[in-house]
TrEMBL record:
Leader sequence residues: none
Official protein name in the record: Cobalt-precorrin 5A hydrolase
GO BP term, example: cobalamin biosynthetic process
GO MF annotations, alphabetized: hydrolase activity
Alphabetically ordered keywords of this record: Hydrolase
């Protein structure tokens, strides 16, 4: 299973999230979206999930902090205790032993990030 993990600014809209997703996917088809607890009610994320038919897995801050990320963003570290919300959310949602398919990708407007992880969710 492939999980698309998202990190984004509060003002990020569906277009920013879609752009990050498209850049991260490079032709791959994710099975599930994931993001940090508190971000799951974002209008942009909900709209994208509904439009594309994806469920959203909510990842707790503790689960985010337990993941080893490739990217080290100071803003993500300060807010969530992880180097990348997108990478950590994808890894946590993809289950034990998951692996990143690639480091997070940033949308052109720098409002959203997306990373893909492959694994077997519980």
């Amino acid at each position: 299973m492939i999980v698309a993990g998202f990190g984004f600014r509060e003002a990020a809209g569906m277009d920013s999230l879609r752009a990050a997703l498209e850049l991260a996917c490079e032709g791959r088809q994710p099975d599930l979206f994931a993001t940090a607890a508190g971000k799951e009610k974002s209008v942009g994320l909900l709209a994208l999930a509904v439009e594309l038919g994806f469920a959203i897995r909510v990842v707790s801050v503790d689960q985010l902090r337990a993941q080893v990320t490739v990217t080290q963003s100071e803003a993500s570290e300060t807010a969530y205790g992880t180097g990348s919300v997108a990478e950590a959310a994808a890894l946590a949602a993809a289950g034990p032993g998951a692996r990143l398919i690639g480091a997070r990708i940033i949308s052109h407007d720098r409002m959203a990030t997306c990373a893909l992880a492959e694994g077997r969710p519980r």
